[in-house]
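## tool: complex_structure
## caller: assistant
## args:
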Amino acid sequence: MCIAWAMPSYADDFTIGYLQLEKDARYSKKQSFARYLLGSLGRPYAGAEVALKESKFHASGIGATFKLEQVKGKDHAALLTSLKEMHAKGVQFFLLDLPADAVHEIATATKGQNLILFNVSAREDRLRQEQCQAHLLHITPNYAMLTDALAQYLVFRKWKEILVLSGQGADDLELNQAFKRSAKRYGLDIDEDRPFALGNDPRQRDQNNISLLTADADYDVIFIADTQGEFARGVPYASIKPQLVVGAEGLAPVAWHWAWERHGAPQLENRFEDKASRPMRDADWAAWMAVKAIAEAVQRTQSRDFTVLSKHLHSEDLVLDGFKGNRLNFRPWDNQLRQPLLLATHNWVVERAPLEGFLHQTNNLDALGFDKPESKCKF
Amino acid sequence: MMHKSLSRQIFLASLITTCTLPVYAKGTGYLFISSEKDNNITVLDGKTYEVIKRIGTEARPRHLQFNADKTQIYAAAGDGNAIDVIDVAKLELVDRIGEIDDPELFDLSADGKIMYISLEDDGALGILNLDEYFAKREGKPDLKVAEAAPEGASSEAEDDAADDEAGGEEEGEKLPGMTTVEVGEEPEGILVSPDGKTAYVTSEVANTVHVVDTASKEIKANIVVGNRPRRFALTPDQKELWVSNELSSSVSIIDLATNKLTETINFLPPKFRTEDVTPVGITLNKDGKTAVVALGRANHVAFVDVASRKVTDYVLVGKRAWNTTLNKDDSLLFVINGLSDDMSVIDVPSRKVLKSVPIARVPHTVLVDD
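## result:
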């Protein structure tokens, strides 16, 4: 045993911190009740718990047992205080189930310290680009990965003429921007980008009436940039022409879907549903995967030394099993987890991306999201 | 004609049932292949590869294994929560071991009396005394068979929340003759030593091979292998255990005297990338000199020289090459291709694919009765 390791109370435990906000709009009852395709059905902590149960043998070689310690903070400052307290007691790996601003703030404040943060639910591209940090690993796929997966599918089907209906929230604009990048990358034509507004104000009917919003344009599909989902769910079957809807409704790109049948996915889904009494969604999967990544690093290196574990997690030799078929690891240029994505409806997975025929010179998974030459990340 | 051979088989079977000495059925020459989505076992003529019969089973049949005298086949029907019993001579479903939660893989003791089942959802190894089960069970289960699953659908049998809640703690107690050993999440591959004293179980999520003492029901060792370990093969001298690692694109070799990982063989067919190589099926030939490993998404099988640990040949087969089986004299290799719904037949000496035979939707395992 490594005596010098930490406080005595942690000697046999390998504790993983889990930070979340007391009030997080992404997990409001209203949001989860609506079951938006891109939304969550609840907090993802159960995902981490399922992974913990799967990992009971992983730390036996170093004579330790994995533990989770969750903290709910009322704001960013409270979370940072909790993180520092736990870090002082020897905790070095933290899951962040937080919105992008909080992730950015905590990552900036802990820069250069011996700890690793796992982003499990913030999809914003900027966290992987200008705001990237060497000690911040992203499990959940970012918008650019999601829209690349969707663009591949649209190109594959030759549905290349797109009408974009865009929300004006900051997140919607980021999603829209990501889609435009993907459209350019894969050769889709955006015929028009029309802003939508929620409401029934007749003075705004060109923005809130779906018939008007979808009229007078020639396109194959409607892409909806709506990270909330409330507008998007009203669009299918309401367009002026019988038209397919993708993006936030209809066909959505996701990290995980309960209906995925291959690669042992149903067994993971069952374990999660037993724990959480609801289907697994992206953030749930990401919380699960983050704990699994830590367990894998400990098992492979047979070490609890931070430098050794951090090096293995950042290495291209890391092999993670995400129950999505491929071996997964982190892109060295921005710490984003490479992974296949699923193109899903409410109850079926239509395709898995990268689609056959979309190749990359080193790893086909890097055809989704920011490739090395495109990266603005500087650690 | 089919009828003639069938009646001969029935005659043969009646002969066997009157014997008390262990008499081995003369091989029918048939191939038996389970289909996960059509919920049946396809019976093929071993020479012409024509379909003799399709035997309906409970939902989602996967692993198949002969009993000790090869008169019966056990078929694990995962979504039907049952292990079906097929009579080889009659080519009929004749019995069923019910109430086993989602069985996928199992193995039998050398005398065929004990069945070792990996119970994935329970994270346990099930040890089922078959004589006790058949003697003490409350009547024979209804032998209904599952309808073929519609395109794209899961073949899940009726299964509601009440069933799920009835599980949990008392599971395993219900079935007469069944005891369980907790081994960790997602036990998958399973192999029992010929003396029946040791069971080896892979855990997909723990990257571990559990070594279980079957008498004391204790885990004797946990051996860390590659990622997502799937299937086993035991060398004929019983000194080495080979384990396929689906996500590490490799096979781990365990020395059974010490229970230590000694070597790893990596696979990479020409023009493929490591991440596309997903080994699952693994078979050793009878003299233990050659191993065959099916490489999953790489759509190849690898032939390995056991002595030198070198891959000698990669042979292109169908999509997602899955399970492999050799015939009795090791001259033919049958490879099940899960995503092209067919089976490749390889002439072993020349390493040439002789034929690709359409089977059924999502074929899983092939047995040869020769």
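## assistant note: Chain A is about 30% helix and 20% strand. The longest strand of chain A covers residues 13-21. Handing back to user.
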